[in-house]
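Annex B. Sample input.
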Amino acid sequence: MRKWRSAVVTAAWVAVGTAAGALGAWQLAGADSRGDTAHSRPLDEAAVRRALAKASEPPEPGGDSTPTPEPGGDTTPATSAPAPSRRPPQKPPAAPERSTVRFTGGAATAECRADGTVFLVSWSPADGFHIDDDVERGPAAVARLEAEPGDDDEREDLSYEIRCTPNGPPHATVTAARDDD
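Annex B, continued. Sample output.
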């Protein structure tokens, strides 16, 4: 008799666990079938920016519905006015397109800005070269730098102009070495 009761109790616990799992799965499936996917997918970068911009907007006047404590510990909205219409979300300014340009004398990280200018964020020489001190980093239509070979190297200095391409990343072009002496 004791074994029989133990088997019944175990079967009841298994049935309760199975029912709880099935109920949870049914609720999740129901949320997805209603199109309520905002809470079941990760946000992309643009959605995060929109949410942050929306959260940093000041509250509309007269639309504060912060609960205020009533005697007895109950909370009710501070105002019963309808929520004001929200301003349409403003598009955040486009972030500059940043990419690395590689060339014989080294590499440079450049930003292509919305106004069509280029700005050199950083640069580094390749082995056997150093970047001359008179870098024209911008922002400007053209950024310039010069890669110079080591002292005992017979190679010539390499001057580069870096520009932004329409609808594309920045690119470097070898130019004639400038005589600054």
